[in-house]
Amino acid sequence: MSCKYVFTLVLAVIQQFLISKVIQPLLHLMYGPHCPLKSAGKIISYAILANNKPFYEFKHQKHSFLLKYQGYKDLEYLDCEDVTLYSVNEKEFLFVRTNQEADIYNVEKHPFLYNIQHSAAVELLVASHETIFQYLQNKTGQDGSNICYVHNHGRCGSTLLAAMIFHTNQCIVLSEPAPIVNLAWMLNEKDYPPSRKSVEYINLVRATFLLTCPDPRKKYFIKPWGIQTLSLLPLIHQALPGIKEFFMYRSIKPTVLSFKKIFLDDLHAMGETAVSMLPINYRMIWNKIKHGRGEEAFFFIILCQIHAYILETQDRFDIKSFTYESLMENKQNFTLELLKEVGIGENYLDKALSALKRDSQANSDLLSRESLRNKNVSISEGTLNWAKKIALDQFEIYLEGSEGRIANQMT
Predict the structure, then answer these.
(1) Residue 209 near residue 176, CB atoms below 8 Å
(2) What is the mean pLDDT of each run of 10 residues along the chain (411 residues)?
(3) How far is CA 64 from CA 51, 287, 291, in A?
(4) Which of 361, 177, 176, 155 has the alpha carbon at shortest distance from 267?
(5) Nearest to 197 by CA among 142, 167, 238, 228
(6) 326/329 Cα distance (integer angstroms)
(7) Which backbone phi and psi does 250 adopt, to 5 degrees?
């Protein structure tokens, strides 16, 4: 792990400790709240005084901000256009009101929703699960038919897909909304796949998606954080039978090379952290086979995502798969097929293709092409052969050639 990373991490931990353990308790003591959330029957409002989310943390929760209690508000406040779902945890749904000038759904300006939603937030709203389930009882007839969702394993072109759909101006595009990955992390504390009969899970999934896509008159396209969201695969269509699901993937070697370019010296630490947030049974497999200094962990994570897709499509044929390679081979045919599946007319082809002329992650300091251009990385033949063996032995996934192309039949 690099010295710069360790130093920055220590500073962030100290800052978070001082704010969350010293300053925030004093504010709560002075301003409240002093009564239980569940008994309120409404939502609690906090003014956001400061951003307290460390750079390394993707979990969006109350401790992500320095807060001042303001009081209770009616549930109807959630219908305001500038109020959006921010996160979900074991007990609560969290919403934020953002500056309207932020234009949080503009994927060109903000390739990842979780970043701009957090930085533009001015008010935090908290409601219990029970309160929200009651609130959604009045919103009947929503089966998710206005939502498209693209499962992916990360670094496979899914952000580019989101940019292509955004350029058609026919959908609200949600690129990596935090509630989806926070929901998946909650489910990942269980084995995979989670029980398909669990009403609790299904209600939570339904609520999270309907709150993330609140307007049934509008069409939504969701591109989630990919590498740890596999636990949602068996549940989404049960919660919302009308939702349209896809799966985007890529040959495994160039995918891991892309991750390696991003993390470089921190690859091992980031790989171990990412594996620790997979479902429990996948973590147990990794503990038996783990090997190497980082590359292997990312091979394993990607294989888990592909394995989850293969499991789910053994008895389902409604999750269309797309590959990055097919996009590069024939951009026009790929885009026409994508538009057809999303329900967008062929007359928007040129607009969708225009997204290919720019970097879909240009405004990301970490992930832009410019920031990654001069980073030379490689993966040894021995490491790739190890990945091929693990893929076959643990997951019955067949990897072919020097790029590790997935040879299994995909829908």
Answers:
(1) no
(2) 59 70 73 57 91 66 88 93 95 94 93 92 95 88 95 95 97 96 91 71 94 96 93 93 97 96 88 92 95 91 96 93 97 98 98 91 66 83 97 98 94 77
(3) 6, 31, 34
(4) 155
(5) 238
(6) 5
(7) -150, 160
